[in-house]
Amino acid sequence: GQSAVLGMDSAVAAQIAVDEINARGGINGKKIQLIIEDDQYNIAKAATAYKKLVEVDGVKLILANTYGSIFALADEAEKDGVILLDPLDCNKVLAELNDNVFCLATDSESIATALVGNAEQNNVKKVAIIHWNSDSFMPLVKDFFVEKFKTGEAKVVEGYSAGTTDFRTILLKAIDKKVDAIVFLGYDETGLAMKQARELGFSGKFYANGTITSPSLQKIAEGSAE
Asked: What does 127-141 look like in DSSP terms, one character per residue?
């Protein structure tokens, strides 16, 4: 999916941990079996994967990287006695779900804190925020950014849905408002947005979340996400 790098890295990390634990004899003498399903950062596919893992494989612990799937599956997990663990995101909204849901990750608010801190250091006064809105995670980070950006103003705030390939209408709004920077909160498709921004003549700063490191994003950006 559009955030494959997140799942791929998590899968590698999980396998390393499982191999290390099993090499030490497992837990109480029992080896751990790791089963990986690709939900492609899609809530419906996550639900299908959950059903297979629980009903066919009999798992009791699921690590889920698709933010929206945690909310979609929380009640089901409680009913099934399954633990859902988000190893990628953590915030108050997740923490207030039922007792079967856990998160162990950097606080979501810290993404906005880091971006705002750098913007303030660089005397950025006007920004545009372009964010993925196909689940509630990036809108949450967007809200944190707007709240914390005390020394400047978000002149344009626009959401986009999964599958968007043309960002030029939103980008032209940002250019028209003469923003100093554009904040991209999304996944691989933001590489395309950066490329289109440069093609339209925008020369200001880009700010982005951690998926900027995705090799596929970098490829789509064609040098614009350096």
From this structure: EEEEEE-SSSHHHHH
